[in-house]
Amino acid sequence: MNFTKTKTVPKSNTNIFQDKNFYIINFITLMGILGGTLFNPVLPIIQNFFQVSEAQVSWTSTIYQLPSAIITPLFGILADILGRKVILIPSLLLFAFSGALSSMTSNFTTHLSWRCLQGIGAASLEPIQLTIIGDIYRGRTLGTAMAFNAGLIGMSGAIFPLIGGKLGELNWRFTFLPAVIAIPIALLTITTLKIPKHQHHTEKFDLKTYFQKTASSINKRPVIGLFFGMMSVFLLQTLCLTYIPILATQKFQTSAGFNGAILASMSISLALVASQLGRIVQHISEIKQIKLSFLLFAIAFLIIPLVPNVWLLFIPMFLLGAAQGLSLPSSQALLAGLAAQESRGGFMAVNMTIVSWGQTLGPFLGSIVLLFSGIKAVFYTSLVFSLISFAVFNYLLTTKVLSFTAQTIYMGGTGVASSTSPATQLPDIPSPSPTILQQPVAQLLNIQTRSIIELPEHFEVLNIGKSYGDFPLEVNLADFPNTEVVSRIHAQIRFDGDEYYIQDMGSANGTYINQYPLIPGIWYKLKSDLSFSLGRRNKVSFIFQLV
After folding, report:
1. pTM, whole model, 2 decimals?
2. Which pLDDT value is given to residue 301?
């Protein structure tokens, strides 16, 4: 989340389900899912039609994802410079026509060529739709929008394989023809979609400043950790979509329609879990949800090669869907909030490029393992990768507090800086001194008790938490109500002489600004009258004021 001042149209706080923009955005989401999932249940049929190997047929998926791994940042930059629609509409049309043409060839190389062009069209769809969600919504509404979007991904991921399996039983070509639905969606985008104007449309664009802002948003350890987590989740997801139908066909002689049902069960689980995130987040923070998802992935991959009956395969599929339902909306909402509005397209494009590398590497690395060790080894290797991802993500998203006794540093004077300090006796002044403009003084108004904590006039860092005995702490909340949710060192407030900032210190229950979770280790700008809470459910909450 970035609270810097920008000249933008205020974001809408309306009910998202009464907003036409929200439905168009989700239609765009469906196109990207359709292009990447509808054909998966019929991969064995495509393999037989073109007379290629199992490793070769996986390129139908890989070649579609490859453009996103290379050119998505370009689309993000152009969307920030030229506007979202200018990039979105041609992308939808390219997606539609090349998808249809990929179904009309009898040559595997030509088929892959059209799939590559369709992948170029799809490369901008997901990052731009996520960017638009970030443009329009904020706070809890942003989280709701992302959770619904993830649930839609889950439901479409459930329905599309079922549809694809049935269409594939008629003819595998029918699984690529529905891409033409992107044409009416492009027309809706032209005529109906309303997007707030952003700074680059009203001011002279400076490419150097743009890259500096984007790089500054990305070059942070927690952001890198979230990027890595997203890449890993999509790598594992695409690997499942590609190789589970192959395993089921080899081991249990399943049909394309039944393969669609297997994949659909994973997506139904994703949608169910994502729909309950509002409740889950009351007990488990977003970051802990992502960590838990990697453990669920590992358990599922351990089970898959061992199941003796095809019906038991639905158990690990449920776990795989739950893992994605926990991680995807949480990651996307956190990342969308971290991006500055004027460079959000580039920021989310970098995110989707990394995601696309995950989607591309999943089938590719799986094909290498399959070539040398067989289909079961693909899932055991995925198990190991899930555990490695958990360890790396946990390391990158763990805030390292170098000093638990960081003292307030006062500037321009000695003694204790406190609102209750006695006045200092001044010497006689022979002549009047010039009037000095007083700077606003910061204070925290506790919403539960209506009491005020006045902050020092000059300081660098203040630690906030609860402390007993001799443990030093600048803002000690031990005597406030409901502080069982407050950690020993919960958060810090920093003052750089001009602006105030707050960061969470890896607390057990998190810190929230306007109900939006802060990522530990990242400084968020505080504005006057902005509310924040320590822990969920607003049990210990404050309004930051400048008086």
Report:
1. 0.60
2. 95
